[in-house]
Specification:
The protein is of the alpha/beta class. The radius of gyration is 27 Å and the shape is globular.
Length: 647
């Protein structure tokens, strides 16, 4: 970083320090933040393009508003790196997304400036509105701002908040950060509307002055304010020949304005800061601003990993001979299935790149549907497709599927519709932390009548389960798999990828023996965590050294991959219960109501008298860190499983 800009940042340990600077120096502050983020994220990977695009917004907000007394609520929050740097976390920024370090998202436990925990989209308006209404009830003058992107505002919850914003007295400001991007390109009518919308700045200034004049003379009541908004909105529509969707909801609209002119943005915020009632400021920005590659390829540079901060060259991991990512196996297998079955379609809520549905999108664009950040709609839309004879593969990250459980129950399962739910990023996801771990899906899907719940131990089984979902299933079918790579790498003698096994279905509800054991202990695993169980059994077979220095060896440990959590293979369990007196269950999901609970329930039903120990995610929110670190914390790494076996 240039010395000039380093000196600027060194003088800012809080927003109060920022507010001491003359307004003319704010562009230098923004440039200093931009250089700092580029240098840091190049070696400590995180969300990059979105953070660069929001820098001027963050500086302007902290300059105008009295934070932390005034509240800033970030939608998603992966754009808030500059916010973290300005609020006393500059020196600890190198620990971003690491175990024991800074969260990649706003976290109230981390700082009083992080007013609300975020990580999922479209919740900021509702949360900020609740804060603003509470402030009004308490009679304080605290200001509240919700910062939401043009992709997030298309979500259903955002519309619910917008619809309710003018129903209660409040002075909420909604700052719409319009960069025409989510992670992939935005979709939907609202996106196109935002690119066209225009509003007269002269008109807004005139209305602002008239409002203040009435306010000074005590002529403004809440009822009169709303009536004036409706009247002036009608006048504006008459002259502009356009109805503003936001002002149609009684929300005063300002903009669009340049989101990278920090001085102008500060002046605009100052003008509207004290206006009564809900307001929206439409700010146009460029995702990846200030870094050419990120501006040109925002999707790739959303979270690019390590890169050269000077040349922009990404430092790619060595993948030669490695196993492919589960998401790529899903994407390529889906294309193979779709080529054979014209009823197959793909549905994803704004994540075609993240879940690799781009393969189907390229091959069959008319059979692939990116519905935007709208998980509830994605599920019910899939139900509608299924009702008319299509076979939708609805791919949603496990953590985001939490938003659509009602739709899964009422719009798919209750009607026994044939929808295949593919839950990517199931289990512990690593550095994105507690808002993104996909550890709750087994309990809530397992509770839904008629639902099949399964998980592959490797890429071969992912392909088998996808075929089974098409050829055998006749109702709702859920497949969960993790982020990252599988375990089958390399190529066979003919040069074909080893993971690309024949497409063949399996029997639903059937588990399989991976190791015959002649001892008293059996390990039952569900999903890819079974590979850790395999390592654990190898360790106890070879001799496991404990903390007290003793070496314990245990021979003849059996291992069963149950594949299906629902329906369970009760016949296989009956044989296991008769043969083994000690059982260890392992899952990469919540223990409460999960796979282990299902085994315990069946053991109770069958009158099993042996001992069962269940390993999985404890009843707490797990922090960020590497997957291996988090597995160790949760006691589901190979060493922890090995200790459970010998204990």
């Amino acid at each position: 970083m240039e010395e000039k800009y380093k000196n600027i940042l060194d003088r800012i340990d809080s927003p109060a320090d920022l507010r001491k600077l003359p307004i003319e120096q704010l562009p230098d502050v923004c440039q200093a933040l931009r250089q700092f983020i580029i240098e840091q994220v190049s070696v400590h990977p995180g969300h990059f393009a979105s953070s660069l695009g929001a820098i001027e917004i963050i500086v302007a907000l902290h300059y105008v508003y009295d934070t932390p007394e005034d509240r800033l609520v970030w939608d998603v929050g992966h754009q808030a790196y500059a916010h973290k740097i300005l609020t006393g976390r500059r020196d600890s920024f190198p620990t971003l997304r690491q175990l024991g370090g800074l969260s990649g998202f706003p976290n109230p436990k981390e700082s009083e400036y992080d007013t609300f925990s975020t990580g999922h989209a479209s919740n900021s308006i509702s949360a900020a509105l609740g804060m603003a209404v509470a402030n009004n009830l308490e009679g304080n003058k605290r200001k509240v701002v919700a910062v939401i992107g043009d992709a997030s505002i298309s979500g259903g919850m955002a519309f619910e908040g917008l619809n309710n914003a003018s129903s209660h007295p409040n002075d909420l400001l909604i700052l719409l950060n319009d960069n025409q991007m989510a992670i992939d390109q935005n979709v939907g009518a609202l996106y196109h509307y935002l690119t066209r919308i225009t509003t007269s700045q002269r008109y807004n200034l005139l209305r602002y002055k008239a409002y203040n004049a009435l306010k000074r003379h005590g002529l403004i009541s809440d009822r009169l304010r709303r009536a004036l908004i409706r009247f002036t909105n009608s006048v504006k529509s008459l002259f502009s020949r356009r109805q503003n969707i936001f002002e149609g909801l009684d929300i005063r609209y300002f903009g669009p304005v340049d989101g990278h002119n920090v001085v102008s943005l500060v002046k605009t915020l100052r003008k509207i800061k004290d206006l009564g009632g809900p307001k929206m400021l439409h700010v146009c920005t460029i995702k990846g601003k200030g870094f050419q590659q990120a501006e040109e390829q925002a999707t790739i540079w959303h979270a690019p990993g390590k890169f050269d901060p000077v040349t922009g060259e990404r430092i790619k991991e060595q993948t030669e001979g490695q196993a492919p990512k589960f998401q790529d196996v899903f994407g390529k297998t889906l294309v193979e299935l779709a080529e054979k079955n014209k009823r197959i379609v793909g549905v994803t809520p704004a994540m075609p790149t993240g879940c690799s549905m781009t393969y189907l999108m390229e091959r069959f664009p008319d059979r692939t549907f990116d519905v935007g950040i709208a998980e509830e709609h994605a599920v019910t839309f899939s139900g509608g497709l299924a009702k008319e004879g299509m076979l939708p593969f609805c791919n949603i990250y496990s953590t985001f599927m939490q938003r659509a459980i009602d739709q899964v129950v009422n719009d798919v399962a209750l009607q026994h519709l044939h929808v295949v739910f593919c839950l990517d990023r199931a289990g512990l996801v690593g550095s994105d932390g507690p808002t993104h771990h996909g550890v709750l899906d087994i309990p809530y899907f397992r509770a839904i009548p008629g639902m099949t719940v399964c998980s592959p131990i490797d890429e071969h089984w992912l392909r088998k389960l996808m075929v089974t979902a098409v050829e055998v299933a006749d109702g709702p079918f859920m497949i969960r798999y993790p982020r990252g790579r599988g375990s089958i790498g390399g190529k066979d003698a003919e040069g074909n990828p080893n993971w690309k096994n024949a497409l063949e279905a399996v029997e639903i509800g059937r588990g399989y023996c991976l190791r015959e054991g002649d001892g008293d202990t059996a390990v039952l695993s569900f999903g890819p965590i079974g590979m850790e169980a395999e390592k654990a059994i190898d360790r106890v077979e070879a001799g496991l050294t404990l903390e007290d220095g003793r070496t314990v060896t245990k021979k003849g440990v059996a291992h069963y991959d149950m594949v299906f959590c629902k329906p369970l293979d009760v016949d296989l369990l009956a044989r296991i219960f008769k043969r083994y007196t000690r059982i260890v269950t392992v899952e990469d999901g919540a223990l409460a109501g999960g796979f282990g609970s299902a085994v315990l329930e069946e053991a109770n039903r069958q009158g099993y008298e042996g001992k069962i120990r269940c390993l999985g995610i404890p009843d707490e929110f797990i922090t960020q860190g590497s997957v291996s670190e988090l597995q160790q914390i949760c006691g589901i790494d190979a060493l922890s499983i090995a200790k459970a076996i010998v204990e």
